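Researcher: Quick one. two chains, 729 residues in total.
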Amino acid sequence: MAADGDFAARAHAALGNAEVRANFRRAMDGLMAKRAAQFTDPQAWAQTRARGAAIKRRVLARLPELLERLEARCEANGIRVHWAETTGDANRIVLGILQEAGARTVVKGKSMVSEEMHLNAFLDRHGITAVESDLGEYIIQLAGEMPSHIVMPCIHKNKGDIARLFAEHIEGQGYTEDVAELTAAARRVLRSKFAAADAGISGVNFAVAETGTLVLIENEGNGRLSTTLPPLHIAVTGIEKLVETLDDIPPLLALLPRSATGQAVTTYVNMISGPRRDGEKDGPRAVHLVLLDNGRSRVYADAELRDTLRCIRCGACMNHCPVYARVGGHTYDAVYPGPIGKILTPQLAGLDAAGDLPHASSLCNACVEVCPVQIPIADILVRLRREAVRPSDTPAVKGAGAKRAPLEALAWAAWRWMYATPALYRLGSRLMARFGNRIPERLPPLNRWTGVRTRPRFAGRTLHDLARDKGYDDA
Amino acid sequence: MPANPTPPAERPHTVYYFGTCLVDLFYPEAGLAGMELLRREGLRVVFPQDQSCCGQPARNTGLFEEARAVARTQFRAFPEPWPIIVPSGSCAGMMRVHYPQLFADEPDRAEAEAFAARVYELTWFLVHALDVRLRDTGEPVRVTWHPSCHSMREMGVTDEPKRLLRSLANVELVENPRERECCGFGGTFSVRQPEVSGAMVADKIAAVSATGAAEMLTGDCGCLMNIDGAMSKAGTPMGRRHIAEFLMERCHGR
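Model:
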């Protein structure tokens, strides 16, 4: 097999950056400890996550019908609903709404779907300034970077990095590593943005079909300000963020913040159910909901891959991933990094574009163990590895077959022949045990093994032969 | 999801032993030690000469047809209804957890499921099916344990190997705080992402070394091959072995 190119090259660079590695390691260790403190009773944890998974499974089983109900309820509440098949469509819809309202400045609450759309850059090209108001997002916006984590977008940065950024970008701000001072500086800047913004854009954690309610959780209050202060609010979200009823919300809220940051609850839980009504003193005059597909309905169409859409974006999988902890989020070169990104990105972008991601995993199952909605991430990784080498006229995943390599296929055909033919296996393994140590170390895959390890030593005689010699029965 | 197996209803007289392909080529002494441990508990241990590999390398590469062909070879090699004992949580997990998935749409699905239900990881079987009592005859020694990801997260093996070690009078078990973290082997992962894998195994060595143990024990020869090779390259003086070999030496003097 070939060493996997792009990911491996970026990982090489990331592993060489001791500072970033230390930042991630420290942060992930802290997050794992906090989460563990929230789920101390294994039985209670098993029940809570089973309930979470069941809620998402139930909604996915009736997704098309419930999406229609969401649309009807939202419209009845005065929320205008828009459907976007692609990120391009979504960007155009958002731009159209902003232009119609004459909006020139936007404050944004944190939204991964807007990252998926590369919305800020798009709006900028059309003369509209969007300012991120989540502290982490604000920091990476100043740095001109992508999020490195879906919940904590600037987790790769330490105090010193942020102090330098603020000193450079915020007027009148000197260099300080005092966290309270840094936060105060960001708050000063952002308060004026909230007050002046023509529109607010946010994501959605859960959209409730039964009531047309948009649930948004956050810790900084920026989500509430973005969605209440400006006269126009546009929420963007993926079609899978749906739940059926309000009763589904508490069990999911019992999972999301505890899994994400180890918090029992978030500071803010926003339930948005429409624009300002007559006689109300605050709230936006107009609320829009943009529902993005961007390949999700294709994921939905496959019974096994559909489990991917249960994700509630807590990030616990990346917090517990031994690969992510070492290479950081940017190595994935994708909006969604870590284990969930490794299964989601190739399905959205195609295996031709992101086919090496499913192999950037030791299949250790640490992510599966902590996923609050029981997504079988490791099994889906293997499924995607399978699709990547299996060309098809009706592919379940875009770009299926893109990673098929004839030489590799031939090697596996030989492997199959040997390991499925007992007499041949005994002969072959006996020869390998005897002479394998003579295989030159420069040959692949041995040359990729010996960078940090000595070569495995063939034992001389196989267990088959030793067992027979020791008198163990064959049948 | 861990398999959470239940032990056979009655203590078996005969068990099969599935040695695994890595043990076959690289660690046959560990394989033999596992068979000896079972034999010394009064069991007849059968080692079918027609066995080869569980098929995990192909399955994890996404080559399901190839994996099934090799799995079927094992179905034929283990025809009797005896328990199948495996000195590896990873190969055991492949057979117990993944065979039923792999054959879900195949005509021989029932055979795959019946085979899977007979698969046990060695240390789990020693504890739960045989209730072994070990008598330590060795000198005082401090050891640390490395659990494989699949033993924990697929086979539901958690405390069993440590229970065996703690039952030895002269053995002090020192757990390392990063015990549950992957060593970076991951089969083809180790050569597809050699640098990431290398960073993981370097951290693993640091964590086990920090315990001050004289020896690191594990129940999976994939992890062992990875950690052993990296320790050799780094010149780490710590011993490292499959737990079966260690138990045989402590309790039966070899």
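Chain A has three domains: 5-33+297-388, 39-294, 406-469.
Researcher: Thanks, that's what I needed.
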